[in-house]
Amino acid sequence: MGNVSGWQGWGRRERERRAAKKLGDDVMTDMDTPLATPRNIQICEVTCDSFRIMWDMTPEDTARATHFFIDLSRKESRDPNRFKHRDVPTKLVAKAVPLPMAVRGHWFLSPRTEYCVAVQTAVRQPDGDYLVSEWSQVVDFCTGDYAMEHLQQLLDKAKVSAGRLLKFSVFYRNQHPDYFHHVRNECGGVMRPALKDSSGSHGSPINGKLHGVFLSCNTEFDTGLPPKDSPYGPLRFQIPAGHLLNPNISLYFADFYCMYTAYHYVVLVLAPVGSEGDGFCRPRLPMLDLASNPFLTYTAPERPGEEPLFSHASDVILEVLYTEPLHLDQGTVEQISGHHQLMSLTTANAKKDPSCKVCNISVGR
Protein backbone atom coordinates (compact mmCIF):
# COMPACT_ATOMS: atom_id res chain seq x y z
CA MET A 1 0.00 0.00 0.00
CA GLY A 2 2.81 2.32 0.91
CA ASN A 3 4.58 1.46 -2.37
CA VAL A 4 1.49 2.23 -4.41
CA SER A 5 1.02 5.51 -2.57
CA GLY A 6 4.67 6.44 -3.14
CA TRP A 7 4.42 5.58 -6.83
CA GLN A 8 1.28 7.70 -7.21
CA GLY A 9 3.00 10.60 -5.41
CA TRP A 10 5.99 10.34 -7.75
CA GLY A 11 3.66 10.25 -10.76
CA ARG A 12 1.85 13.35 -9.59
CA ARG A 13 5.13 15.16 -9.00
CA GLU A 14 6.43 14.13 -12.40
CA ARG A 15 3.28 15.38 -14.11
CA GLU A 16 3.59 18.69 -12.24
CA ARG A 17 7.28 18.95 -13.22
CA ARG A 18 6.49 18.29 -16.87
CA ALA A 19 3.63 20.78 -16.80
CA ALA A 20 5.87 23.41 -15.25
CA LYS A 21 8.59 22.69 -17.80
CA LYS A 22 6.07 22.98 -20.64
CA LEU A 23 4.81 26.30 -19.24
CA GLY A 24 8.37 27.55 -18.97
CA ASP A 25 9.09 26.42 -22.50
CA ASP A 26 5.96 28.21 -23.70
CA VAL A 27 6.96 31.40 -21.88
CA MET A 28 10.49 31.21 -23.17
CA THR A 29 9.24 30.59 -26.68
CA ASP A 30 6.93 33.58 -26.47
CA MET A 31 9.71 35.80 -25.12
CA ASP A 32 12.13 34.69 -27.81
CA THR A 33 9.67 35.06 -30.68
CA PRO A 34 10.93 37.95 -32.86
CA LEU A 35 8.89 41.14 -32.92
CA ALA A 36 7.60 42.22 -36.29
CA THR A 37 9.21 45.26 -37.91
CA PRO A 38 6.96 48.35 -37.47
CA ARG A 39 5.40 49.31 -40.77
CA ASN A 40 3.35 52.12 -42.29
CA ILE A 41 4.84 54.87 -40.13
CA GLN A 42 2.52 57.88 -39.99
CA ILE A 43 3.24 61.38 -38.65
CA CYS A 44 0.32 63.68 -37.80
CA GLU A 45 -0.61 66.76 -35.76
CA VAL A 46 2.76 68.36 -36.43
CA THR A 47 3.50 71.68 -34.70
CA CYS A 48 6.68 73.74 -34.39
CA ASP A 49 7.85 71.60 -31.45
CA SER A 50 5.82 68.39 -31.36
CA PHE A 51 4.22 65.64 -33.42
CA ARG A 52 2.26 62.42 -33.08
CA ILE A 53 3.49 59.14 -34.49
CA MET A 54 1.81 55.80 -35.15
CA TRP A 55 2.52 52.60 -37.07
CA ASP A 56 1.07 49.17 -37.80
CA MET A 57 1.69 46.38 -35.27
CA THR A 58 0.48 42.80 -35.14
CA PRO A 59 -2.07 42.00 -32.39
CA GLU A 60 0.51 39.74 -30.74
CA ASP A 61 3.15 42.50 -30.65
CA THR A 62 0.62 45.04 -29.43
CA ALA A 63 -0.21 42.75 -26.51
CA ARG A 64 3.38 42.11 -25.41
CA ALA A 65 5.34 45.26 -26.35
CA THR A 66 6.51 47.11 -23.26
CA HIS A 67 8.56 49.89 -24.84
CA PHE A 68 9.08 51.88 -28.04
CA PHE A 69 12.47 53.11 -29.23
CA ILE A 70 12.40 56.27 -31.35
CA ASP A 71 15.35 57.70 -33.27
CA LEU A 72 14.97 61.28 -34.50
CA SER A 73 17.52 63.44 -36.27
CA ARG A 74 17.69 66.43 -38.56
CA LYS A 75 17.42 65.34 -42.15
CA GLU A 76 20.46 67.30 -43.30
CA SER A 77 22.72 65.41 -40.90
CA ARG A 78 21.34 61.98 -41.72
CA ASP A 79 23.82 59.16 -41.16
CA PRO A 80 23.12 55.90 -43.04
CA ASN A 81 24.83 53.94 -40.25
CA ARG A 82 22.73 55.46 -37.51
CA PHE A 83 20.72 52.27 -36.96
CA LYS A 84 23.53 49.72 -37.07
CA HIS A 85 23.18 48.80 -33.36
CA ARG A 86 19.85 47.06 -33.70
CA ASP A 87 19.47 46.07 -30.07
CA VAL A 88 20.63 49.29 -28.38
CA PRO A 89 18.13 52.02 -27.43
CA THR A 90 19.14 55.21 -29.19
CA LYS A 91 17.61 58.61 -28.45
CA LEU A 92 14.30 57.91 -26.74
CA VAL A 93 12.93 54.94 -24.83
CA ALA A 94 9.23 55.33 -24.15
CA LYS A 95 6.85 52.99 -22.41
CA ALA A 96 4.41 51.44 -24.82
CA VAL A 97 1.18 53.44 -25.00
CA PRO A 98 -1.81 53.33 -27.32
CA LEU A 99 -0.94 54.83 -30.69
CA PRO A 100 -0.70 57.53 -31.94
CA MET A 101 1.87 58.60 -29.39
CA ALA A 102 2.60 62.29 -28.74
CA VAL A 103 6.28 63.22 -28.93
CA ARG A 104 7.36 66.55 -27.47
CA GLY A 105 9.76 67.84 -24.89
CA HIS A 106 12.24 65.00 -25.44
CA TRP A 107 14.14 67.00 -28.04
CA PHE A 108 14.51 70.72 -28.67
CA LEU A 109 12.70 70.57 -31.98
CA SER A 110 13.16 73.56 -34.25
CA PRO A 111 10.29 75.07 -36.25
CA ARG A 112 10.09 74.55 -39.99
CA THR A 113 12.91 71.99 -39.97
CA GLU A 114 13.08 68.66 -41.80
CA TYR A 115 13.58 65.60 -39.61
CA CYS A 116 13.78 61.86 -40.19
CA VAL A 117 12.46 59.33 -37.72
CA ALA A 118 12.47 55.54 -37.29
CA VAL A 119 11.02 53.29 -34.59
CA GLN A 120 11.47 49.90 -32.92
CA THR A 121 9.11 47.98 -30.67
CA ALA A 122 10.60 46.20 -27.68
CA VAL A 123 9.84 43.82 -24.83
CA ARG A 124 11.73 44.31 -21.60
CA GLN A 125 12.87 40.95 -20.28
CA PRO A 126 13.27 39.88 -16.61
CA ASP A 127 17.07 40.33 -16.78
CA GLY A 128 16.64 43.94 -17.93
CA ASP A 129 17.64 43.34 -21.54
CA TYR A 130 15.30 44.14 -24.42
CA LEU A 131 13.97 41.93 -27.14
CA VAL A 132 13.63 44.39 -30.04
CA SER A 133 12.23 44.48 -33.54
CA GLU A 134 14.17 45.59 -36.58
CA TRP A 135 14.15 49.33 -37.20
CA SER A 136 11.27 50.57 -39.30
CA GLN A 137 11.81 52.43 -42.53
CA VAL A 138 12.97 56.03 -42.09
CA VAL A 139 10.21 58.62 -42.54
CA ASP A 140 10.81 62.30 -43.27
CA PHE A 141 8.63 65.15 -42.04
CA CYS A 142 8.89 68.89 -41.44
CA THR A 143 7.90 70.79 -38.30
CA GLY A 144 5.55 73.77 -38.56
CA ASP A 145 5.70 77.53 -38.01
CA TYR A 146 5.09 79.28 -34.73
CA ALA A 147 1.41 79.15 -33.83
CA MET A 148 -0.40 82.25 -32.64
CA GLU A 149 0.27 81.31 -29.00
CA HIS A 150 4.01 81.19 -29.65
CA LEU A 151 3.99 84.54 -31.42
CA GLN A 152 2.11 85.99 -28.48
CA GLN A 153 4.92 84.81 -26.19
CA LEU A 154 7.43 86.48 -28.51
CA LEU A 155 5.32 89.65 -28.59
CA ASP A 156 5.21 89.77 -24.80
CA LYS A 157 9.02 89.61 -24.71
CA ALA A 158 9.33 92.30 -27.38
CA LYS A 159 7.10 94.67 -25.42
CA VAL A 160 9.58 94.61 -22.53
CA SER A 161 12.39 95.78 -24.83
CA ALA A 162 10.51 98.40 -26.85
CA GLY A 163 11.33 101.50 -24.77
CA ARG A 164 9.57 104.85 -24.95
CA LEU A 165 7.89 106.12 -28.10
CA LEU A 166 9.53 108.79 -30.30
CA LYS A 167 7.85 110.87 -32.99
CA PHE A 168 8.70 110.34 -36.65
CA SER A 169 7.38 111.62 -39.97
CA VAL A 170 8.70 109.39 -42.77
CA PHE A 171 9.33 105.79 -43.66
CA TYR A 172 12.53 105.26 -45.62
CA ARG A 173 14.54 102.65 -47.50
CA ASN A 174 18.28 102.91 -48.16
CA GLN A 175 19.85 101.17 -51.12
CA HIS A 176 22.75 101.45 -53.53
CA PRO A 177 22.41 103.38 -56.82
CA ASP A 178 22.19 100.14 -58.82
CA TYR A 179 18.99 99.21 -56.98
CA PHE A 180 17.18 102.44 -57.81
CA HIS A 181 18.52 102.36 -61.36
CA HIS A 182 16.95 98.90 -61.75
CA VAL A 183 13.65 100.07 -60.24
CA ARG A 184 13.44 103.04 -62.62
CA ASN A 185 14.54 101.29 -65.79
CA GLU A 186 13.34 97.72 -65.36
CA CYS A 187 10.33 98.02 -63.02
CA GLY A 188 8.64 101.19 -64.24
CA GLY A 189 9.64 103.09 -61.11
CA VAL A 190 7.87 100.60 -58.83
CA MET A 191 9.50 98.89 -55.85
CA ARG A 192 7.87 95.50 -56.02
CA PRO A 193 7.26 93.31 -52.98
CA ALA A 194 9.94 90.62 -52.57
CA LEU A 195 9.66 87.33 -50.71
CA LYS A 196 10.67 87.62 -47.07
CA ASP A 197 13.93 85.75 -46.43
CA SER A 198 14.62 83.37 -43.55
CA SER A 199 16.33 85.85 -41.23
CA GLY A 200 15.17 86.19 -37.65
CA SER A 201 13.19 83.55 -35.79
CA HIS A 202 13.06 80.40 -37.88
CA GLY A 203 9.44 79.83 -36.89
CA SER A 204 8.05 83.20 -38.02
CA PRO A 205 5.13 82.46 -40.39
CA ILE A 206 6.15 85.21 -42.83
CA ASN A 207 9.59 83.74 -43.61
CA GLY A 208 9.66 82.56 -47.19
CA LYS A 209 5.90 83.06 -47.54
CA LEU A 210 4.97 86.74 -47.47
CA HIS A 211 5.99 89.34 -50.05
CA GLY A 212 6.68 92.93 -49.11
CA VAL A 213 8.92 95.99 -49.31
CA PHE A 214 11.08 96.51 -46.23
CA LEU A 215 11.22 100.01 -44.79
CA SER A 216 12.67 101.67 -41.69
CA CYS A 217 11.34 104.44 -39.48
CA ASN A 218 13.84 104.71 -36.63
CA THR A 219 15.14 108.22 -35.91
CA GLU A 220 18.07 109.81 -34.15
CA PHE A 221 17.44 110.99 -30.59
CA ASP A 222 18.84 114.46 -31.08
CA THR A 223 17.23 115.40 -34.40
CA GLY A 224 14.07 113.28 -34.67
CA LEU A 225 15.16 112.55 -38.25
CA PRO A 226 16.39 109.36 -39.96
CA PRO A 227 20.08 108.60 -39.33
CA LYS A 228 22.60 110.40 -41.54
CA ASP A 229 24.45 107.18 -42.25
CA SER A 230 23.23 103.79 -43.41
CA PRO A 231 24.68 100.28 -43.72
CA TYR A 232 22.47 99.56 -46.74
CA GLY A 233 23.48 102.24 -49.24
CA PRO A 234 23.98 105.99 -49.83
CA LEU A 235 20.62 106.67 -51.49
CA ARG A 236 17.42 106.97 -49.48
CA PHE A 237 13.81 106.66 -50.59
CA GLN A 238 11.53 108.58 -48.21
CA ILE A 239 7.75 108.52 -48.10
CA PRO A 240 5.45 110.46 -45.71
CA ALA A 241 4.40 108.24 -42.80
CA GLY A 242 0.70 108.87 -43.41
CA HIS A 243 0.87 107.18 -46.82
CA LEU A 244 1.52 103.83 -45.14
CA LEU A 245 0.27 104.22 -41.57
CA ASN A 246 -3.38 105.27 -41.44
CA PRO A 247 -6.81 103.89 -40.47
CA ASN A 248 -6.98 101.87 -43.70
CA ILE A 249 -3.95 99.80 -42.70
CA SER A 250 -3.71 96.63 -40.60
CA LEU A 251 -0.64 96.39 -38.36
CA TYR A 252 0.79 92.99 -37.33
CA PHE A 253 3.63 91.76 -35.14
CA ALA A 254 5.77 89.18 -36.96
CA ASP A 255 9.08 88.66 -35.12
CA PHE A 256 11.52 89.64 -32.39
CA TYR A 257 15.17 88.62 -32.65
CA CYS A 258 18.84 89.53 -32.33
CA MET A 259 21.96 88.40 -34.16
CA TYR A 260 24.49 87.97 -31.36
CA THR A 261 24.30 91.71 -30.62
CA ALA A 262 23.05 93.85 -27.75
CA TYR A 263 20.28 95.44 -29.82
CA HIS A 264 17.14 93.70 -31.01
CA TYR A 265 14.94 93.79 -34.10
CA VAL A 266 11.15 93.85 -34.19
CA VAL A 267 9.50 92.94 -37.50
CA LEU A 268 6.10 94.50 -38.19
CA VAL A 269 3.81 94.07 -41.18
CA LEU A 270 1.70 96.87 -42.69
CA ALA A 271 -1.05 95.57 -44.98
CA PRO A 272 -3.93 97.55 -46.48
CA VAL A 273 -7.22 96.34 -45.01
CA GLY A 274 -8.75 93.66 -47.21
CA SER A 275 -5.58 93.12 -49.27
CA GLU A 276 -3.98 89.77 -50.02
CA GLY A 277 -1.30 90.51 -47.44
CA ASP A 278 -3.96 91.32 -44.84
CA GLY A 279 -5.67 88.02 -45.58
CA PHE A 280 -2.41 86.12 -45.13
CA CYS A 281 -1.51 87.78 -41.83
CA ARG A 282 -4.86 87.85 -40.07
CA PRO A 283 -5.01 84.14 -39.08
CA ARG A 284 -1.25 83.84 -38.51
CA LEU A 285 0.03 86.97 -36.75
CA PRO A 286 -1.04 88.99 -33.69
CA MET A 287 -2.78 92.19 -34.82
CA LEU A 288 -1.75 95.42 -33.09
CA ASP A 289 -3.95 98.41 -32.28
CA LEU A 290 -2.77 101.31 -34.47
CA ALA A 291 -3.37 103.84 -31.71
CA SER A 292 -2.06 101.83 -28.76
CA ASN A 293 0.91 99.51 -29.03
CA PRO A 294 4.55 99.78 -27.92
CA PHE A 295 6.15 99.69 -31.38
CA LEU A 296 4.48 101.84 -34.03
CA THR A 297 1.45 104.12 -33.52
CA TYR A 298 -0.89 106.36 -35.45
CA THR A 299 -2.72 109.03 -33.44
CA ALA A 300 -5.61 110.64 -35.28
CA PRO A 301 -5.80 114.47 -35.27
CA GLU A 302 -8.02 115.91 -32.54
CA ARG A 303 -9.16 118.96 -34.50
CA PRO A 304 -9.81 119.75 -38.17
CA GLY A 305 -6.68 120.93 -39.92
CA GLU A 306 -4.30 119.18 -37.52
CA GLU A 307 -1.89 116.47 -38.66
CA PRO A 308 -1.90 112.94 -37.23
CA LEU A 309 1.01 111.93 -35.00
CA PHE A 310 3.30 108.96 -35.70
CA SER A 311 5.55 107.30 -33.12
CA HIS A 312 8.08 104.45 -33.08
CA ALA A 313 9.77 102.44 -30.32
CA SER A 314 13.11 103.87 -29.25
CA ASP A 315 15.03 100.85 -27.95
CA VAL A 316 14.55 98.34 -30.77
CA ILE A 317 15.26 98.45 -34.50
CA LEU A 318 11.97 98.30 -36.39
CA GLU A 319 11.81 96.46 -39.70
CA VAL A 320 8.52 97.34 -41.37
CA LEU A 321 7.28 95.12 -44.20
CA TYR A 322 4.73 96.84 -46.43
CA THR A 323 2.87 94.25 -48.48
CA GLU A 324 2.01 96.37 -51.55
CA PRO A 325 4.13 97.87 -54.36
CA LEU A 326 5.51 101.37 -53.80
CA HIS A 327 6.11 103.84 -56.64
CA LEU A 328 9.12 106.09 -56.36
CA ASP A 329 6.85 109.01 -57.27
CA GLN A 330 5.07 108.55 -53.92
CA GLY A 331 8.19 109.84 -52.21
CA THR A 332 11.68 111.14 -52.95
CA VAL A 333 15.08 109.56 -53.55
CA GLU A 334 18.04 111.55 -52.28
CA GLN A 335 21.66 111.15 -51.24
CA ILE A 336 21.89 110.75 -47.47
CA SER A 337 23.51 113.71 -45.75
CA GLY A 338 26.20 111.89 -43.79
CA HIS A 339 29.81 112.50 -44.75
CA HIS A 340 30.40 108.75 -44.86
CA GLN A 341 28.41 105.56 -45.09
CA LEU A 342 28.86 102.60 -42.82
CA MET A 343 30.34 99.43 -44.25
CA SER A 344 27.87 97.27 -46.13
CA LEU A 345 25.79 95.16 -43.77
CA THR A 346 22.88 92.87 -44.43
CA THR A 347 20.50 90.90 -42.26
CA ALA A 348 19.47 88.66 -45.18
CA ASN A 349 19.02 85.09 -43.91
CA ALA A 350 20.79 86.08 -40.68
CA LYS A 351 20.41 83.50 -37.93
CA LYS A 352 18.81 84.34 -34.62
CA ASP A 353 20.97 83.91 -31.53
CA PRO A 354 19.49 80.76 -29.92
CA SER A 355 21.13 81.49 -26.56
CA CYS A 356 19.66 84.97 -26.04
CA LYS A 357 17.33 84.99 -23.03
CA VAL A 358 15.73 88.27 -24.11
CA CYS A 359 14.23 87.19 -27.45
CA ASN A 360 13.83 83.41 -27.29
CA ILE A 361 10.75 81.55 -26.12
CA SER A 362 10.22 78.09 -24.69
CA VAL A 363 9.78 76.31 -28.03
CA GLY A 364 12.16 75.52 -30.87
CA ARG A 365 14.39 78.34 -32.05
Tell me briefly what this model is.
19% of the residues lie in helices and 30% in strands. The protein is α+β, with helices and mostly antiparallel strands and 365 residues long. The protein folds into two domains: 39-142, Immunoglobulins (Immunoglobulin-like, Sandwich), CATH 2.60.40.10; 148-335, no CATH class.
Structural summary, described in words:
This protein is of the alpha+beta class and 365 residues long. The chain is built from six helices and 22 strands. It has two domains: 39-142, Immunoglobulin-like (Sandwich); 148-335, no CATH class. The strands form six sheets. Strands 12-13-20-16-15-17 form a six-stranded mixed sheet. Strands 3, 4, 6, 7 and 8 form a five-stranded antiparallel sheet that branches. The chain has a three-stranded antiparallel sheet with strand order 1-2-5, with no helix packed on it.
Q: Could you give the order of the helices and strands?
A: HEEHEEEEEEHEEHEEEEHEEHEEEEEE
Number of E-state strands: 22
List the total number of helices.
6
Q: Specify the biggest β-sheet.
A: 6 strands, mixed
The level of helicity is: 10-25%
Average pLDDT, all residues = 85
**Physical arrangement of strands within the biggest beta sheet:** 12-13-20-16-15-17
Shape from CA axes? elongated
Query: Strand-residue fraction?
Result: 25-35%
Please identify the oligomeric state: single chain
- Low-confidence parts: 1-11, 23-29, 78-90
The rounded distance between the terminal residues' Cα atoms is: 86 Å
Using only C-alpha atoms, the radius of gyration works out to 32 Å
Structural class given helices, strands, pairing? alpha+beta
Count of the separate structural domains:
2
